[in-house]
Amino acid sequence: MNWSVEAICTGLAVPFNGAERSAIAKHPTPGPLRINRDGFEVDEQADRKVHGGPEMAVHLYPLDHHDFWTGMLMGHALLAEPGAFGSNLAVRGIDEEQVCIGDRFQLGSAVLEISQARQPCWKVEHRFQRKGMVAAIIETGRSGWYFRVLEEGVAQAGDTLHRIEQGHEDWSVARVFETIFAPDTSNEDLAAVANLERLSPNHRERARMRLA
Asked: What is the mean pLDDT of the chain?
């Protein structure tokens, strides 16, 4: 399947909350842009312990989710920005149910692989200045996801995100996210998630911790 990338968004780490810095504010960036193992070369992540690195190199938060948030938040100026949730790729017609952990995609001359769902954190609520967003992400599964970069390359807005290989076909991003973060999860599902070869080590370990 193919999806068009409307924009590629990047950002720099700036003061965010007192001494805290963040690069969650991403803005459309003209290309072509180089994609390295750690993501787009002009993109930054402030806290590399929880964002960025090879397992969280490129982030996609579906543009269609902005409609949901417009209703929930009764509108918000930030929702007009394609990178409002820190997303690098602005794409419509795709969501967590349609893609699986380990799915591989051609983007420009690069090859990306879905590594994990995005874990929601307080920075989303601080950016929007609205409480309850993290709980809503967990409840609805509107998490977005990360890619690792299997082959470095170059991409730009207007390129196609083309799925070239199916990953763990029984484990959509939505199902894995629910298994790891929902309050009621079966040990059988947790054990299966802990053994997904293409899932990031961090999320496999989260599943193991819940089993324990």
From this structure: 94
